[in-house]
Amino acid sequence: xxxxxxxxxxxxxPPLDEWTARPRPPATPMVGRTCRLERLDPARHAAExxxxxxxxxxxxxxxxxxxxxxxSLAAYDSFLTAEAAKxxxxxxxxxxxxxxxxxxxxNFMRIDPANGVIEIGHVAYSPLLQQTSAGTETIYLLLRxxxxxxxxxxxxWKCDSLNSASRRAAERxxxxxxGVFRQATVYKGRSRDTAWFALIDRDWPAARTAFERxxxxxxxxxxxxxxxxxxxxxxxx
Length: 237
Hints:
Layout: E1 4-5, E2 11-12, E3 30-31, E4 35-39, H1 42-53, H2 73-84, E5 92-96, E6 102-112, E7 117-125, H3 133-149, E8 154-160, H4 164-173, E9 176-187, E10 190-200, H5 204-215, H6 230-235
Parallel strand pairs: 7-8
Antiparallel strand pairs: 1-2, 3-4, 4-5, 5-6, 6-7, 8-10, 9-10
Helix pairs in contact: 1-2, 3-5
């Protein structure tokens, strides 16, 4: 980036003369080949989500989430009902295209239209969504909405710095690690250092191409195994 100086000789950031605040995310569904994302409706989704999470052999996939595990459907439904009334976080349910069942959630949060910044957070995948094409397509659909449809400049991803799976996922999706905020949060009675990742608008075209090439049907063999990894497609377009 070329250095820009004001009239006092001080370096300043590039001008954004035509910048305007971005729209807030709409409630319209995001539809992909393997899944669709729709706004959380506890009356339709709570039972399916609870059943999907119950397929896990233990509660380890809740360890790094701010909430859970939930001991009953009633408790989970109560939580979802309270969350559905909020505009931030803006909760999305992932519907598996093959079964038409809810299998997880991934949400927009810390929505900052004035600065064009938005976070993908509370990614709560049940075992039915973990390590699937639909899990990857979920993130692609959220990024496509943020960058292509709404014109945001920056999408963030944050997680407990000890959550190695979430850190690997962020890097696989093309997010850049920006640092660790020490003792940033207290949750579930313990301290959390938060790892920060982000994609910005100039990163997105290359990341989008890699996502789309990875998600293409011809990238998978007859057994559904990938021919090329997302990391490889991003490194070697």
